[in-house]
Specification:
The structure is a homodimer of 375-residue chains. Chain A has 10 helices and 12 strands. The first copy, chain A, is α/β, with parallel strands linked by helices and 375 residues long. Chain A folds into 2 domains: 262 residues, Alpha/Beta hydrolase fold, catalytic domain (Rossmann fold, 3-Layer(aba) Sandwich); 98 residues, Rna Polymerase Sigma Factor, Chain: A. In chain A, the strands form 3 sheets. The first copy, chain A, has an 8-stranded mixed β-sheet with strand order 1-2-6-3-9-10-11-12, with helices on both faces. In chain A, strand 11, helix 9 and strand 12 form a beta-alpha-beta unit. In chain A, helix 4 packs antiparallel against helix 5 and helix 4 packs antiparallel against helix 8. The first copy, chain A, is globular. About 2% of the residues of chain A have low confidence. At the A-B interface, helix 4, helix 5, helix 6, helix 7 and helix 8 of A face helix 4, helix 5, helix 6, helix 7 and helix 8 of B.
């Protein structure tokens, strides 16, 4: 069974749907993919929220992909008989608002001008992303989620779902995430943004007619990429190994493998991702604060009326959202009377550990979802 | 007693002095400052090695500085009656080769062309920096150092002194440093270099007739600056405090104080430092490897004939050169029969802790130097 990317477009003006900034963005298109079947009681839906640079293609192959080379970013977790079993669950994954992988974002055409939005795209929050996903769920006839699951910025969406629409959430699995960005996390995002905006080809966000700020975007990605790894993993993977040479070059070529690797990651990302989307999504992540945020948004208090099951997962070597931040989240959730399990997984590969096949994570998620089933 | 910056120039060709790359750089000027008096037996000299972006102005005021606003980067440590007591010791601090604070570097005039070297400046190593400093010591009539002291890249110089010229070193205090850069440290340096080289105003290093790559250099500094801080210190200092506003701007202005702070640090640095010097000095730091390095250089084995006293100091919150790396250094030194003391200082302010006034560091260094005196 193969899948395809689908698109749902709605008129936010008509629905009176404002962004957290007070502005209205309309129309909104959300790219999404589904795997499995929604059952008759419509209670087996699992929403998976992707991380910063991810997309709706969470697992499986596209039916029209002859190369079959793109099995999705969480294919080891999602599928028949896997941790999130698509024989039992109807899995949905939406590309986030503000991204560039099919959903409306700064690279989309602004109907008012006929040109790409660029910086005319309004700032969006994690809450705005959730509101857009809710429209997709409504379109699919889903009013309750068996579970909402995601890592990193996906984990922020999980938490935001729980405070915005607690009545819709039976259970939630926030992974490698935080209630709010620390100054350190904001700092790295800000440096990435500055790297993009320092590139003259960024041109104040108006570059869709040209090649765009590829060099600045590559630097931004290198910064991000390092924060997703760990000292241990980098020592193990690269150490001080030289790249295709026996001695130093004594120039500014890449001497060390880690240099080549980062340059490759940077330029690869610059070819596939939109620089303005990096600006908007990093800002949304920086703004995110589960407990206290902008004037218009709900707070953790809104959970009090509801009791969901939570499985909070952190990784020992994640220094972007370290375990102490997961513990803060666990405490905050418990204070509102939620049913919270917490697991810190020992892993040396840093923040991105949840994207790396690991039977422990699979078993944890499978067991937790089974428990919901029984409840 | 006030001081002045001095300059010593020598002809490296005449001396037959090659760089580790095999090239010859000549003439070489080293800017240096001295505080205190060299005694008659010429055995009270203490060499202080500055970190990456430092200079020869380690302490005291310039006699011709009417504002008296620039007391030196380690003024709390160096002076009459201070941790490094200039009533007893003759303190020397040289600006490193490759820098832009008076010593020969890529912004210096290439006598062959009459223009700034730019990328025609040869790659220099930490060992090359030490060789240049040795010329200054010879000029001052110093053949033995009571101690050589420095933090970060200054600490690498300390260690390099000990392997290159062990017979000249009575004692050494490497602080917040490492025997060799980890992949993580190389990664951050490489990203900083890429940020500079991505700026079109860098112009392959040939920008001395124009304004230069100010934006790229600012991004490079922001990256460096974050690695000098710590998660804890940034939470304490900035947290999620907003900059001069009560709510989010919903645009790409600096919302958070940490963003303004980093932007300020970046642009301030871009005004005072040369972008090419960042490239050369970071590369020298990446190349540095105390135990095994380029073909021409000495190794840790060369310490075996000599016995010096070492005080190795690390900081609990230094994640650029974490304590485990200091412990590796201590073990390596002990294996060669050195007399090594080690102290990890509990401090939450990260790698740059040694630049922040702390009576514990002062007392440690004072006590250690006193011990040498008694020996």
């Amino acid at each position: 069974m193969k899948i395809e990317k689908q698109y749902f477009t709605y008129d936010a003006s008509e629905k009176g749907q404002q962004l957290d900034s007070g502005l209205v963005l309309s129309p909104v298109t959300i790219a999404y993919e589904t795997i499995g079947r929604l059952n008759h009681s419509r209670d087996n839906a699992v929403l998976i929220c992707h991380a910063f640079s991810g997309d709706s293609h969470v697992a499986d192959l596209y039916w029209d992909d002859p190369s079959e080379s793109n099995p999705g970013w969480w294919d080891f977790m999602v599928g028949p008989g896997k941790g999130i079993d698509t024989d039992r669950y109807f899995v949905i994954c939406c590309n986030i608002l503000g991204s560039c992988m099919g959903s409306t974002g700064p690279s989309s055409i602004n109907p008012e001008t006929g040109k790409a939005y660029g910086l005319d795209f309004p700032m969006v929050t994690i809450g705005d992303m959730i509101n857009a996903q809710k429209q997709v769920l409504a379109h699919l006839g889903i009013t309750k989620l068996h579970s909402v699951i995601g890592g990193s910025v996906g984990g922020m969406q999980v938490l935001e779902w729980c405070v915005r629409y607690p009545e819709m959430i039976k259970s939630a699995i926030p992974i490698a995430t935080t209630m709010r960005h620390s100054a350190l996390a904001i700092a790295f995002n800000e440096i990435a943004r500055q790297a993009i905006m320092a590139d003259p080809l960024w041109n104040k966000g108006d570059y869709y007619h040209s090649s765009g700020p590829g060099l600045g975007l590559a630097v931004a990605r290198m910064i991000g990429h390092v924060t997703y790894l760990s000292d241990e993993a980098m020592r193990r993977k690269f150490g001080r190994k030289l790249q295709d040479k026996e001695d130093f070059s004594f120039n500014f070529e890449a001497d060390f493998q880690v240099e080549s690797y980062l340059r490759h990651q940077g330029s690869k990302f610059a070819r596939r991702f939109d620089a303005n989307s990096v600006l908007y999504i990093t800002k949304a992540a920086d703004y995110f604060d589960l407990a206290d945020n902008v004037n218009t948004r709900e707070s953790l208090q809104d959970l009090r009326g509801n009791r969901s099951k939570f499985l909070v997962i952190s990784y020992t070597s994640d220094w972007l959202y370290p375990t102490y931040q997961a513990r803060e989240l666990v405490k905050a959730l418990k204070r509102t009377g939620q049913d919270v399990s917490f697991c810190e997984i020992e892993a040396d590969c840093g923040h991105d550990a949840f994207l790396i096949k690991d039977i422990r994570l699979t078993n944890l998620i499978r067991g937790f979802l089974d428990g919901i089933e029984d409840a």
